[in-house]
Amino acid sequence: MAAHIDPAPTVGFDLDMTLIDSRPGIRATWVALSERTGVHVDADLAISRLGPPLVDELAEWFPAERIPATAELYRAMYPTYAIEATLVLPGVHEAMDAVHAAGGRTMVVTAKYEPNAKLHLAHLGIDADVVVGDLWAEGKAEALREHGASVYVGDHVGDVRGARAADAFSVAVTTGPCDAAELRAAGADVVLPDLTAFPAWLDGYVERAARR
Known about the structure:
The protein has ten helices and eight strands. The protein is α/β, with parallel strands linked by helices.
């Protein structure tokens, strides 16, 4: 259990497969990258394991000496192929609105390259007060602590680890590659099917905080 409950919480959210279904756009980017570089990438396999940093996936397909330049190329190509094709997941706008209605603040903390993360949010009209990119797993605790987040919501065991490292309440959703059992085993405080269940959960969280 996280160490503190905040009646007007700052709530952090992961991006890929928590707020957005970026699989179609990321798949298109991998296909285009493969064509550009001449290196085979199984795009369907790549999108089945979203969560960790881009360089981790690149390491599955490219030799180490090519990874820095290829990462730059991928990130440059990404807006062309990935933004329009990406969808907002169910309940996202309502979840953000619920945090603001409780007097809290919202933030997005993601392993994605921050400028591209901001393009997704702007395109889909997702209202986050703070956006921090390029952080993964326990590294996310840096931003969560800096902004005083007491709740972090994500779909991956790495997100659970980030919440625990920040001493934040870990809310996990099963919209990504990790199932409920994996998320609970990693230490999630609560597991929801998706963000449509988040406003009701937040009401209970704020009510408990008010009684303290």
